[in-house]
Structures are given as structure tokens and as C-alpha cells.
Amino acid sequence: MTNEEIIAALTERKPELVSETGGEWPNFMVAAAEWPGFAAMLRESEDLWFDYLFCLTCVDWKTHLTMVYHLSSTRYRHNIVVKATLDRSAPEIGTVCNIWRTAEFHEREVFEMFGVHFSDHPDLRNLILPDDWVGYPLRKDYDDPVNMIKM
Amino acid sequence: MVEEIGTTDEGDLIINIGPQHPATHGVLHLVITLNGETVRKVEPHLGYIHRSIEKMCESLSYRQFIYSTSRMDYLSSHINNHCCAMTVEKGLQLEVPERAAVIRILMDELTRIASHVLWWGAMAMDIGAFTPFFHAFREREMINDIMEETCGARLTMNYMVPGGVQFDLHPNFHRRVKAFVKQLRNKLPEYDELVTHNAIFKSRTKGVGILSKEDAISYGCSGPTARASGVDCDIRKTYPYEGYEKLQFEQAMSTDGDTYSRYLVRMVEMRQSLSIIEQLIDNIPEGDFQAKTKAVLKLPKGEFYSRVETARGEFGVYIVSEGGTTPYRIKFRSPGFSNLSALDHTVRGQKIGDLVAIMGSFDLVIPDIDR
Lengths: 151, 371
Hints:
Chain A is of the alpha/beta class. Chain A has a single domain (3-119), classed as Beta Polymerase, domain 2, CATH 3.30.460. Helix content of chain A is 22%, strand content 26%. Chain A has helices at 3-13, 35-44, 103-114, and strands at residues 18-20, 27-30, 52-60, 64-72, 79-87, 92-94, 117-119. In chain A, helix 3 links the parallel strand 6 and strand 7 (117-119). The radius of gyration of chain A is 16 Å and the shape is elongated. The mean pLDDT of chain A is 86. By secondary structure, chain B is α+β, with helices and mostly antiparallel strands. Chain B has helices at 53-57, 65-69, 77-92, 98-127, 131-151, 173-196, 199-205, 213-218, 223-227, 235-238, 259-281, 335-341, 343-347, 352-362, 366-370; strands at residues 6-7, 13-17, 29-35, 38-45, 160-161, 164-165, 302-309, 314-321, 329-333. In chain B, helix 4 runs antiparallel to helix 11 (259-281), helix 4 (98-127) packs antiparallel against helix 14 and helix 11 (259-281) packs parallel to helix 14 (352-362). The chains are: A alpha/beta, B alpha+beta. Chains A and B meet through strand 3 and helix 3 of A and helix 8, strand 7, strand 8, strand 9 and helix 12 of B.
């Protein structure tokens, strides 16, 4: 499907969906609470078939966090970006590692680096950082006077 | 974080492999639950070589940050640099001169061969054959010499810059690459004789560590690891960049998904890369090797994503720009990280001795996983 066809197909199913164009791939904003259900729909729909989650990350905007999911279809070769805004003080979103199993590792990384809590994640522990690490290093206000060199 | 060596309530043994162990090819730490000789669970513990490159890049300019990516997957440094340069070019809407594009492809393919040759030696060594390692290094040395002449480095090249490549090709490049292609074409049958058709190697790898097509996609596997399971995921074919669409080559594929097919896919890929080099080496267009760019690069506000095929799979660079001279947020999608997530699933139920063979066939580079 082309970008326009994807936007049309998705807004038909969910008219309240906010889409952004201008980028290379269609962008969609979803509410955090709706994400797992929306993700399952993207994965299962025969005409969309987004079976490959190739990038999962988070961006700290100082006022809020944004989860960014890059999806692609190995059958149709189309791509999509889905974003969800999270509250910075208590970020929480449902896990998608039962839909795309690669999410398990990626969500653990986002958990330790940004402090996002993924509800229903089977094994939400630090993956890269030691267990007793304090703070979320990839947040913008993180400060480590010992290990960080300021330029 | 580190589980003590001990036994579980069911009587399973917990042992640690790494962080310093020759079979993990770097500082990877695996906590393994064993029932007799059968692997019940493998849990990777990462971070021993984590440098937080993503955080560092937030304070580096668009010219500087590319250098740090050579230190991620150091066997694919050209290709990592290439992807970063492409992302910045996407933001600047910069056209790369034809000559630079061809040089980039040539360098990428030489890197791919160097990486696969090294992997071939290391894989055989993991299984217990020591000699192939020396054969592999003989050929890899030739590529390193070619790189050294043109890029000035043998491992962390930093050769690709936004707009093209840093220097023009060395006058010896053409002759040396021709000699290398001839040499490797002659030696590949020898490689096959030594390892591919070796009865012990076959019995150690055939039917071992099977990863199904569905699982490979679900775990986000890419590169030869996924193609051995029948996923046609070569970015050079599926989302062509830099002129790969004009070249004649096939995706190396297999459908068995076992360790031996992951091996075979890379052997085919080496021949494919040689054929790409042969198509281009006599047709390098004349002209500039670098487009004119400003001294200080500023990306417009927005998000840019590029993906390339490294020797290990799909590498992606995601830049979020606020319009300044440094990226606001940068994310590197490294192929090793996703491929590693499938390791636990693949080795469950296999013998501990096969774990090393399976890990070897995944071709993990640890700095690429940790970043």
C-alpha cells in the first residue's frame, strides 16, 4: 500500500486517529491506553500485516515522553510509524512483546534508559545497566558528575 | 544482576559463560540454566561495553557523530558510517555525486566480505577447527591493506561523510581490488573444501538450532540470520539505496533455518559481493567524490530514518532534529541486538556444546549490541 492508502485504511477503522504526513512514512498518534489493541490490529489485519517491528524507542521532550514504534510489513513492504505520548512523572504503556517478541528486549532497554513502565511485560528488569543504577540516563535532565564529560 | 552459580529448585544447574570467554567473541555474559547437558534457558546480561553512544551523539555535531558509529559494529564500520551519512543527507536533501555513490558501494561490499571472511574463520574455530582462522586472515589482510591506503585506517574507517566520501581513491585501489577478487575467487573453493563439505562440521551444524520463519520475523531478526530462515529481508533489495537497484545480484536465501543454512547463506553472500565489486570496479565514474557542503551542518526540524544492510543485518539510524547543529535524539537500530533476542528461543532444548555453534552462526558483535 502507498502512504495515502495506509492513512485511508486506518482512518476508516479509527476515525479519531491523528495522522501526520510530510515525513517519509505515515505517522500516527495513539493514546497510550489504546496502543496494545491498536498494535494487535496492525499485526493481524490481512491488508496491513505489520509483522516486523524494526525499531522501538523513546524521545524525552522535557515536558512529556514519546514512544516511537517503527513497523514494517515483510509481505507488502510498507512502513508506518506509531507514536504515543506518555506522562513524564509516571510513564506507563502496555507491552507489545506478545505481538512482536523482539519488543521484549527493546522495552527493557527503554525501561532502564527512560523509566517507562511497560505493563504486563513478562520480565521487566535492567538489561544493560546494573540493577542498582539510579536515574534514567537517556532523559534530558540526567546528570552524572563522575562519568559524564560536558562539552 | 548476576546469578550465582547454583542449582534451581527443579535441580537444574545454573552456569555463567562470559563476560570473558573466547566463544562469546567479546564481553557477552550468558547465564545458562542446564538440565544435564540440555539448555533450558539462556539469559544474556549486557552492558559490559556499553558506552552510551546515543547520549554522546546528542552533544556531537552532524559531522562528528558519524565517527562514534565506527566503534559499534567495528566489522561493518563503513556500512554504519554510510547509514549515518545517508540520514544526514536525507535531512539536508543533498545529492551524492555518482562517483561517491559507487565508491561507497565498493567499500560496503569489501567490508561485507572482510566481515564474512572473519566470521567464517571464527565460526570454524568455535566448532573446533583452528586452521580456517589463518586462511581467513590471509584474505582479510588484503582488504585491510586496501582500506588503509584509501581511508588511512584498517578497522574504524570514518571514510563516509555527509555528501560523499572523505578522500578520493588511492591510485593503487583498482589494481589491488582486482588482485583481491582474483585471490578470493580462487580461495573460496578451498574454503568449501576445508569447512563447507567437512563431514564433522556438517554433523555439528545440520539440524542444530532451528529458527522458523515466523519466529525470525517476530524476533526482529535480519541479515543472514533471518535469510537462512526464509525471510527475504535484504535491505539492498527490499528498500534499495545508493544505486543497489541497478546492480545484478541475488538475495542469498535458505529455508531450513538451522546453523548450517546460516553458514551457507554467508558463503553465498561473499560470492554475491564479489560479483557486485566486479560489476563496478571497471566502471567507477569520473567526477567529484564529495558534494559541496557547508562547514557547519544544520538539519531542519523533523525526523529522519535510514536503513542499510550491514554484514549482520538491518542497521537503522533515527535522528530527531530540533533544527540545531546537533541531534536532539538519536537512536541506532543495531542488527545484533534484535538477533540476540532470538538466541534464547533458538537454543532451548539444544545441547550446551551446540550453543557455541549456534552463537557463532548468529555472528554477534558485542559492541554493536551494547552501543
